[in-house]
Write a structure and sequence with these properties.
Length: 313
């Protein structure tokens, strides 16, 4: 289906601005630009009972996290560890603040957003190590966070979807922490660039093929292995025993096909998997609440999926 006029206007304005691709920008400039762009479509921030910044121990030092508590209650709530997108190299807690607030409110869950270390200063597996350790910490400290340790899910978008899938894989291999669900929003799943969606959507739709190649170069560094199953999760030999998954993709996204391929592989290993493609939108649409109605629709679907998983957990 065609892109909505409001979204097309954003694409046209972006093209007219003549901003160089991320791969040609100084890293600090790219990170600042990501913050500005994230604010473009965010809309008003949800008011919650508590929003608290903390620092927790990690493998490379303290990891900043932000804890979103939706309501004042003595009952333990379900928990969601949220891992932000941004190609493992840009974005963070602030760019995804409104998404986490909305998720906490709609899912009725305590959301813990993780400010993992970024590449290229900290290439693979450092971001994954932080995300896995943070997930373990949330489960181990569930009581003090007001979380039911038996009802914890992991969720993320783009590179955060990749990290969420990898955390689920690592948790299975390590025998914990237990996870009741994984939400993967337009996830990166493979370090190859040869799918039809890369050919169809690799230029002109915000996330471009050249930018993804640059992101992978930053993440893997000079010594990283693109075949490593914790990086290219689509290449994992065995996906059995993973938690139920919701995989969301966007029609005009170079990552569309690899996300859908991962959903099919999960399903092939008998992992309960729901795959939803949103037509007429681009990569990053979940953060475009003020631009496309699909952002609200996707958030409601995520909340519904999580509520079902929490009820079964």
């Amino acid at each position: 289906m065609p892109i909505s006029p409001a979204l097309q206007a954003v694409l046209d304005a972006s093209a007219a601005a003549g901003v160089p691709p991320i791969s040609e920008q100084p890293l600090a400039e790219a990170r600042a630009g990501a913050m500005n762009f994230a604010a473009l479509g965010a809309g008003p921030r949800e008011e919650l009972f508590g929003v608290d910044d903390r620092q927790i121990p990690g493998p490379g030092g303290l990891i900043p996290v932000r804890v979103y508590t939706p309501v004042d209650t003595e009952d333990a709530l379900p928990g969601v560890v949220y891992l932000h997108g941004g190609g493992w190299a840009i974005m963070g807690i602030e760019t995804h603040d409104w998404i986490c607030r909305r998720l906490a409110k709609e899912a009725g869950a305590v959301v813990v957003s993780v400010e993992y270390r970024l590449a290229p200063e900290h290439p693979f597996p450092a971001p994954l190590d932080d995300c896995y350790d943070a997930t373990k910490w949330v489960v181990e400290h569930a009581a003090e966070l007001g979380i039911d340790a038996a009802r914890v899910a992991v969720a993320g978008d783009s590179a955060g979807g990749n990290l969420s899938a990898a955390v689920a894989l690592r948790a299975r291999a390590a025998g914990g922490p237990p996870l009741v669900a994984q939400v993967l929003v337009y996830p990166v799943t493979d370090a190859s660039f040869d799918t039809p969606s890369y050919a169809e959507n690799g230029k002109g739709y915000l996330l471009e093929a050249d930018s993804m190649r640059w992101f992978w170069d930053q993440y893997l560094g000079p010594d990283g292995d693109p075949d490593d199953a914790y990086a290219s999760v689509l290449r994992a030999a065995d996906l059995s025993g993973l938690p139920p998954a919701l995989v969301i993709t966007a029609e005009y996204d170079p990552l569309r096909d690899e996300g859908e391929a991962y959903a099919r592989r999960l399903d092939g290993f008998d992992v309960p998997t729901t795959l939803v493609r949103y037509d007429g939108v681009v990569h990053g649409f979940l953060g475009m609440r003020e631009i496309v109605p699909e952002a609200d629709e996707a958030m409601a679907r995520i909340a519904g999926f999580l509520n079902q998983a929490f009820a079964s957990g």
